[in-house]
Structure formats: C-alpha cells, structure tokens
Amino acid sequence: MDKRIAKYELMLILMPDMGESKTAEELQEVREQITSVGGEILEEDLWGVRKLAYQIKKQENGYYVVLNLTLGTDEVHELEKSLILNPQVIRHLAMRVSDSYTLKKLADYEAEWEKDDIESKKKEDEEQERKDGLKKTVKKVKEVEEVKEAVKVKEEEVVEKKEEEKPKKEVKEEKEEEVSEEEKPKKEVKKKKEEEPDSRSKLDEFDEKLRSLINDPDITL
Amino acid sequence: MPTFKNRKCYFHSEDIKHIDYKNTRLLRKFLTQYFKIVPRYYAGTCLKHQKEISRAIKNARIMGLIRFTR
C-alpha cells in the first residue's frame, strides 16, 4: 500500500486564557506532531481571540487558528484523536480540500465585507435620492392622470353623440398638452394629424395611446 | 431571493467555485432570521450548491462562527 497524501484545512479553537507564550507552545506542539508524521504546513492564519457564537466548554471566547497542510490520509485520524484528547483545544475541524485550494485569510474577508458595506450604503443613498426625485414626478403624473380621466369622459360623450368636429378639437388640444408633459416625440402626433382617418378609427388609436401611457412603467411609478 | 421562474443559482451567476465556511457574511444570505437554512425553493440555488452551502453552514455552526438558532 502506497501512502496517499492529500491537502487538508485544519481549524482549531484553543482556550482563550492561556497567554501568548502558552498558545504559541501549544501550536508548536501541533505543528511538530504534523511534521513528525511526514506532513507539511503550507499556510497559517492566526485569527486571535474571538467571541464564540455560543458557549463551548463553558468558554465565551476562543483563540482561532487555521492551518493548511498536506498529510497522509491515515495520519489525519491519529491527529484528530490526539486533538480530541488535548484539553487545551476546545474544538477542531479537519476538512479535506482540493489541491488547487488556496487559503483566504480572515483579513481578506473583512476587507471584502467592508467594501460590500460601503457599496450597499451607496446604493441606499442613491435609492433615497431617486425616491426624492420621484416624489416631484409623481405629482406631475397625477396631474396627467386627471387630464386623462377628463379626456375619457369626453370620448364617451363623443361615442354617444357621434359628433365629429367639436370634441375632436378638444381632444387634439389635450393631446398636445400631454405630449409636452411626457416629452414624447411630436412626430407621431404630426403623422396622425396628416392622416386624419374616420372619427371612430382615430378614437381607437387614441384609446391605444392612452393605454400605452397608463401601462408605461416610467410614468406610473 | 428570487422566487420566479427561470431564475439562476446565486453561485452560478456570481461564479463562486468554492464555498468557504469561514465566509460568514455569505452564509448569512442563506439563513432565515431564525438562523435556519433557507430551503432550495426559496433560495433558488441548484442542488449541487445547496448541498455545498448547507455543509458549509453546518461546519461554521460547529466551529462557533454562526449560532445554531436564535
């Protein structure tokens, strides 16, 4: 049987109240244990004393250490056994990782999180600005809606009476007002003026235009 | 988290290859307010990544990085 060597990530939580020199000794013991069995420590990340999310072995804090190492597959179990028996180790976790894995240190993560915080704050500020801007536009939109309702009422009257000339003019005027408010291209209006189809078809067109205005997400926000 | 059709897995869209149990900020996205793992039909992750993230969350819980419950 030839030995298989794999890459592992080992995390240890040591007792927090040992003092610096003692923790260093304890760590050195673990390192020697690894290297004595033919392992190799690739990377190391000392997190220092951190608060635990919950009590472990009646401790509120713990000294975190992360090691990246290569070890034979059988030796890992022995290492774990000894770590369980070690009273200075609160908890440990040995994880097998792929060969291409590189350790990302806590400092990198913290820098990343800070960046995220800054970005999210910026986004919030932008959204607030947008909302403040929207409040002004909403007023305008409300006015436009009132105009639309008035137009609709007039249209119904038109359909009932089937008079062509007088309501047409009114409709045209209001059309122009709307266009100026919404800043739509005036070409469309001009084209419609040139064509001037029958009253009913024109009313249908106007209906469609109104619907598009109502369904327009930019306006009805 | 998206709940619509044709949604994409978060880890596919962000192109995250290795889910690290030490990245607690990332794991927090896949926990409810009571620190339970968000199920797949809410989180929108694919099965492969759901398994990885749940494994990572459990590892982080064991190591005292995240609490088990609120």
Biggest chain pair interface:
A-B, 20 and 15 residues
Distance between the termini of chain A: 71 Å
Structural class label of chain B = mainly alpha
Global Rg of chain B: 12 Å
What's the count of strands of chain A? Answer: 4
Question: How is this structure best described in words?
Answer:
The complex is a heterodimer of chains A (221) and B (70). Chain A is α+β, with helices and mostly antiparallel strands. Chain A folds into two domains: 5-97, Ribosomal protein S6/Translation elongation factor EF1B (Alpha-Beta Plaits, 2-Layer Sandwich); 134-215, no CATH class. Chain A contains six helices and four strands. Chain A has a four-stranded antiparallel sheet, with helices on one face. In chain A, helix 3 (106-161) runs antiparallel to helix 6 (199-215). In chain A, 11% of the residues are buried. Chain B has four helices and no strands. Chain B is globular, with a radius of gyration of 12 Å. The two termini of chain B are 21 Å apart. The longest helix of chain B has 16 residues, at 47-62. Chain B has a single domain (10-62), classed as Ribosomal protein S18 (30s Ribosomal Protein S18, Irregular), CATH 4.10.640. Chain B is 43% helix and 0% strand. Chain A binds chain B through residues 11, 13, 52-54, 56, 62, 66, 91, 93, 95, 97-98, 101, 104, 106, 109, 112-113, 116, and chain B through 18, 20-23, 25, 59, 61-68.
Describe the structure using short key phrases.
heterodimer; A: 221 residues; alpha+beta; Alpha-Beta Plaits; 2 domains; 6 helices; 4 strands; B: 70 residues; 30s Ribosomal Protein S18; globular
Helices and strands, with pairings:
The complex is a heterodimer of chains A (221) and B (70).
Chain A: E1 5-14, H1 20-36, E2 40-56, E3 59-72, H2 73-85, E4 89-96, H3 106-161, H4 165-182, H5 186-195, H6 199-215
Antiparallel strand pairs in A: 1-3, 1-4, 2-3
Helix pairs in contact in A: 3-4, 3-6
Chain B: H1 10-14, H2 24-28, H3 40-43, H4 47-62
